[in-house]
Structure formats: C-alpha cells, structure tokens
C-alpha cells in the first residue's frame, strides 16, 4: 500500500508539467474508476460498473477470465466520459500455467461508443467505434506462418506479448489472424506474464495526443510504448476492459482502473481549433493499412509502367512498319 502511495506520488510529481511545459493538474474521477473493494460492482444500481460473461469480483482483483479455455469476460463503466484530456492507469496481472506462447489471448482496454457487447476482439465487439488498447499475449500470425512452414521476415516480426493501439470508426474489422497488424497505430513488446511485481499500463490522451506507457519491471518507472499525435476521439464514450481465452488460457486480472482528469492549458487559438469530433480518426494516418502483403501500386510505379508500355508500343509499331515496308519492297522486286 505504501509502495503504491509512493508510486502515485512520484507519478503526480512527474506529471506536473506536460511535454511542452504547460501546467497539468490531475484529479481522480471516481465515477470512471474501478478501485478496491469494488463495492457493489456488477450488482447494485449504485455501482458505476457492469460485469459481463466470466468476469468475477474477488477481494483483491476483478478476474475477467480464469485460466480456463473458452472464457470471455468484461467490465464496463456505466457513465459516459465527457472529459477532454484524461489518463487511464491500469493495474493488472496476467498469469497462468501455460509455458511461453502456450497461453492466451490477452485483454483489451476500451474507450468506445459501444458497451457490454460480447464479440471476437478480446471478448468484445468487432467494428467498434473508438479506441482499443490490446495486450495481446498470443502470436496468432507467427504460429500460423510456422505451421505453413513459411519463413518469417525479422523486419516485421513482433515479439509477444505485444501491446498495440487501434482506433475504429465503426466499419473497420480487427484482423485476429494477423494480431491486428493492418490496423495497428503503434505498439511495443511487453513481457507481462507471470511476474511477481505489480504491472501497470497507462493510456494518456492530452491535446489529441495518445500515449501508452508501461511499468512492468517493478522500478516505478514509465517506459514509452507508443505515442501518436492527432488522434480524434469523440466525447461521451465508455471505458471498459475485456478479455478472452480460447484453446489457450490465462488468468486476466484487473486490480484497478484509475481515471484522472487532466487539466491542460490551451491558448485561445488552440481552443478555436479544438472542434468537436463525431467519428474517430487519426490525422495523416489511414486507420487501415496494407503492409507488404498486397501493397497497392504507388503513383510513381504506375506512371513508369504506363510510360514504358507506351514507349514499347511505339518502338514495336515502328519496327513493324519497317519490316512491312521491306517485305513489300522485296515482293515488288520479285514481280518485276
Ligand atoms: C473508416 O475508416 C476507413 C479506413 O480509413 C475509411 O475507408 C472509411 O470511410 C471510414 N468510415 C467512416 C464512417 O469514416
Ligand atoms: Ca493474438
């Protein structure tokens, strides 16, 4: 407890200034936080949280799934969040009997329009609208390629467990077979399983900048995971967390979700430019990308292909005309 208090204190000190020296104050918002002793969670109407599927409230944690095959569970906030700048601190524990890569599948932290809808994306709905941060503990793509005896290109290999962020606009699917690679905005490796120390993840959303940091080494230090500017998320979405097990399993435990309101100074100009958003998007990054597999032809490549085709056709027709002339000449010579 003292450790945690110290940790929060350190965090507060380190948070006093934002990236560019602007003052940032933070306040814990109880209505968006899930904290011990989880009073009434999932039952009373007084609770701010709903449980779904296999999720169970224990003394020390909320267990999304036990270390048992084919389970899915979730916890969802009942209150939509209208904060402009916020930070979600997630204290979690992933543990189980499985040896490395014989465990799965991981869990997700959500800030979405939809809530309490079970589905295939870490136990929650696909084609979601909003933000998903996935702690993916099973490398589906790598295992599939291994089984097909295809060689893996190290350049594009991701070491699992892997944390990634995705922004959905309601029409984009999560590619489970490829561990979400086509819609990955950023990510990092995080060996989070079966650790004795406390493991934390923080999602910070300030001035449309999305950052994810982790503290899993027991050093009370945040390590950068991903940092993406220009992320446009509407207000009034719901926080939640969900998890799934399949053929492989793990205990996915949430010890706390702490949502802090961040108070950020904005210049008059920044205020003017801060227009209300209705559909999630990311500036300058397409939400769906093709990488390597079926790369669409670039404009330059297409230009050269057309250019050489035209040149080739001209050369061929010139040769054709010359040959034809020659042939006619020869024929005339034979006639006379
Ligand atoms: C969602 O994103 C995809 C890919 O970026 C885009 O093609 C589609 O038009 C977007 N849908 C909406 C409703 O904005
Ligand atoms: Ca996976």
Automatic annotation (TrEMBL):
| PROSITE patterns cross-referenced by the UniProt entry | L_LECTIN_LIKE
- Claim: Glycoprotein is one of the keywords in the record: yes
Q: Where in the cell is it found?
A: Endomembrane system; Golgi apparatus membrane
Question: One GO MF term, please?
Answer: metal ion binding
Give GO cellular component annotations, separated by semicolons: COPII-coated ER to Golgi transport vesicle; endoplasmic reticulum membrane; endoplasmic reticulum-Golgi intermediate compartment; Golgi membrane
Q: Any idea where the L-type lectin-like domain is?
A: 26-262
According to the record, the signal peptide region is 1-18
Alphabetical keyword list: Disulfide bond, Glycoprotein, Golgi apparatus, Lectin, Membrane, Metal-binding, Signal, Transmembrane, Transmembrane helix
Q: Which GO terms describe its biological process?
A: endoplasmic reticulum to Golgi vesicle-mediated transport
User: In its keyword annotation, does this UniProt entry include Metal-binding?
Assistant: yes
Q: How does it sit in the membrane?
A: Single-pass type I membrane protein; Single-pass membrane protein
Q: Name one Pfam family in it.
A: Lectin_leg-like
Membrane-spanning regions, if any? 300-324
Q: What is this protein called?
A: Lectin, mannose-binding 2-like b
User: What organism does the record attribute this protein to?
Assistant: Erpetoichthys calabaricus
């Amino acid at each position: 407890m003292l450790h945690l208090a110290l940790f929060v204190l350190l965090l507060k000190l380190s948070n006093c200034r934002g990236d560019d020296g602007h003052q940032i104050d933070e306040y814990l918002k109880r209505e968006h936080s899930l904290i011990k002793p989880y009073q009434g969670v999932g039952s009373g109407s007084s609770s701010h949280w709903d449980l779904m599927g296999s999720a169970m409230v224990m003394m020390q944690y909320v267990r999304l799934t036990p270390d048992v095959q084919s389970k899915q569970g979730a916890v969802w906030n009942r209150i939509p969040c209208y904060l402009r700048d916020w930070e979600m601190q997630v204290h979690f524990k992933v543990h189980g009997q499985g040896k490395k890569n014989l465990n799965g599948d991981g869990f997700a932290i959500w800030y979405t329009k939809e809530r309490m809808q079970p589905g295939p994306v870490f136990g929650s709905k696909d084609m979601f609208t909003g933000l998903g941060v996935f702690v993916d503990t099973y490398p589906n793509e790598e295992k599939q390629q291994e089984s097909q005896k295809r060689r893996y290109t190290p350049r594009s290999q991701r070491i699992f467990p892997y944390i990634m962020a995705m922004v959905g606009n309601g029409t984009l699917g999560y590619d489970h077979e490829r561990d979400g690679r086509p819609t990955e905005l950023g990510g990092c490796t995080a060996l989070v399983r079966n650790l004795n120390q406390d493991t934390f993840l923080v999602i910070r959303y300030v001035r449309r900048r999305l950052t994810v940091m982790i503290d899993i080494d027991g050093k009370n230090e945040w390590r950068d995971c991903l940092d993406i500017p220009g992320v446009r998320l509407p207000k009034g979405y719901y926080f939640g967390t969900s998890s799934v097990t399949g053929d492989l399993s793990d205990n996915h435990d949430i010890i706390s979700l702490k949502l802090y309101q961040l108070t950020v100074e904005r210049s008059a100009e920044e205020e003017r430019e801060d227009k209300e958003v209705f559909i999630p998007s990311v500036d300058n990054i397409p939400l769906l990308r093709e990488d390597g597999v079926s790369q669409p032809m670039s404009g330059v490549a297409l230009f050269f292909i057309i250019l050489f085709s035209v040149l080739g056709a001209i050369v061929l027709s010139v040769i054709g005309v010359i040959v034809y002339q020659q042939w006619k000449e020869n024929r005339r010579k034979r006639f006379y």
